[in-house]
Every structure is written in C-alpha cells, then in structure tokens.
Amino acid sequence: MKIDLHLHTNFSDGEKSVEELIHFITSKKIDIFSITDHDTIASLDLARIKANKYNKIFIPGVEISTYYKGGEVHILDYFVDSRNGLLLSFLEERFSKRIKRMKETIHILKKMGFDINYNDVVKTSPGPYIGRPNIAKALVQKGYISKPAEAFTDELIGNNGKAYVPPDDCSPNDAIDIILKTGGIPVLAHPGIYFSDGNWKLKEEDIKKFVNAGLKGLEVYHSKHTKEDFEYYREIARKYDLIITVGSDYHYSDNPVSTEMPIDDEVFSEVWKCIKPLVF
C-alpha cells in the first residue's frame, strides 16, 4: 500500500483541484491519501466522493498553523469530523485571522514600496483562501520577482522576513487540544524544516513537550527531510510510541509525492501498520 498523508489542493495553496489531485496521485500509484489544506476543511466532502470514484482510501485532514519559540509549527489533524461545531468554529477563527495576517503583510509590503493590494493577491487564488504563496504570485505578476520562491527571503516574506506576520495567536498545544476534543489525531508535520532565529529543526525536547500535551504522531517521512532526519525522527517516534506517518506536502507540479521520495516499500509497510487500526 502506497501512502501520502500530506497533500494540498487549490482550496488552500495547492495548484490542483480535488479531482485533478486524486487523478494525479492515481498515476503515481498512491492508494491511501489525505488532503490537509491549511486551516480549512472545505475540500473534504468533495474529496470523499472523488476518493470513492477512484477507489482510494481517504483520510480527511487539515493542517493547522501555530507558533512556537519564534517559528511556525504545523499540526496535522487526521480523521477530521467535518460536522463538528467546535472544530468548525476554531477553523473559521483561524481562517479569519489568516486573512488578517495576509492583509497586514500586504500593508507592510506597500510601505516598503511594493505596489500590490489585497485584490491583486485574491486574484491569484481560485477560492477564498490566501496565504504567503499567493502574495508571492502577486509579486511575480507585478514584475518584482521572477518566481514565487524569491519572495521567501529575509527581505520579503520568509519566516524571518521584514513583511512576515506570524500566526502567534495559536500555539501547538492549542491546536493539539482542539484536535483531541473534536476526535481527531494530532500529528506534528515536518519537524525537520522548522526554523526560528537561526535554529533549525525541532529537537526531541520540543517534541516531548508536544507529546505531554497529547501529540499522537510524527511526520517522520517528509519530502524535505534528509535521510538523517528520517532516522532521527523515527527513533523519537518509536521512543514515545508515536504514530509514524509519511507525507510529501505536495503543492505544485515540481514537488515530489511520496512514491518519488527516497523511501522503500518497508517504510510504507511501517506507516500502514501504524495507521491501519485507525482506518478500519
């Protein structure tokens, strides 16, 4: 069973529609998948329908943006109940605050001399969601940069960028708490690409704090993790009896999916063993 539990659609900052994404992962031989759009579950009902059409096992998810020690930490919520009122209220608030942060970022950029406005950014998104990638696209369209990646620097909207506005109103523990209260499974996303004030990667001492708060899983296998990261985080996951997951964090056509990552069938078997009791 080939698995990818971290995928994005154009309901957040991915380039593909739900059906385009599922058709695409079918071509990549992926059997089990999760859509984990940022701070929204708007894609999930459609994804369930399309997953049945393509005969896939679908795990509904969402990726929640939080702030920890000066850097962003993302918590994945799996087996989301998309009818849960408490979760819907929480995500609605997160989404509203996301829009507010993006407007603040645009305001800072304008003060820095960049002639972009909110409508310019909204036009780059097929839906109501906007995030930093949409601001980057607007900067490309205005001719300030040649490709979106150039926006993610200390000069612009990178994690230490002059125009970056962090999601500092929500901690990892806040997200874990709401996920547990609403029947989900909280999993720490891509711990190997955390960055804050010159510090790279979340360490065991950080992950232990999240475990104490109720964290249930760790995204050991991520497309931007190194082989050393795989080994380090697998050890931690086993030590704290955490669910081990694999997720590509696919957004765009130049990103790999899980079947294109440097992992073998043994890894997929290990992940399937972890999640199978939750699926059936």
Helix fraction, binned, reads: 25-40%
Instruction: Label the overall shape.
Output: globular
Order of helices and strands: EHEHEEEHHHHEEEHEHEH
| Global mean pLDDT | 94
DSSP strand tally: 10
CATH superfamily heading of the largest domain: Metal-dependent hydrolases
Kindly name the structural category: alpha/beta
- Give the strand order, joined by hyphens, for the main sheet: 4-5-6-9-10
Find the CATH topology of the largest domain.
Answer: TIM Barrel
Radius of gyration: 18 Å
CATH class of the largest domain: Alpha Beta
What is the CA–CA distance across the termini?
14 Å
Compute the number of helices: 9
Give the uncertain stretches in residue-range form.
Answer: none
Largest sheet: 5 strands, mixed
Number of domains: 2
- The CATH architecture assignment of the largest domain turns out to be Alpha-Beta Barrel
**Approximately how much beta-strand content do the residues carry?**
15-25%
Question: How does this structure look, described?
Answer:
With 280 residues, the protein is of the alpha/beta class. The protein is built from nine helices and ten strands. The protein has helices at 18-27, 44-53, 85-111, 118-122, 132-141, 172-181, 204-213, 227-239, 265-279, and strands at 3-7, 32-35, 57-58, 61-68, 71-78, 185-188, 195-196, 199-200, 217-222, 243-247. The strands form three sheets. The protein has a five-stranded mixed sheet with strand order 4-5-6-9-10. It has a three-stranded parallel sheet with strand order 1-2-3. The protein has a two-stranded antiparallel ribbon with strand order 7-8. The relative contact order is 0.16.
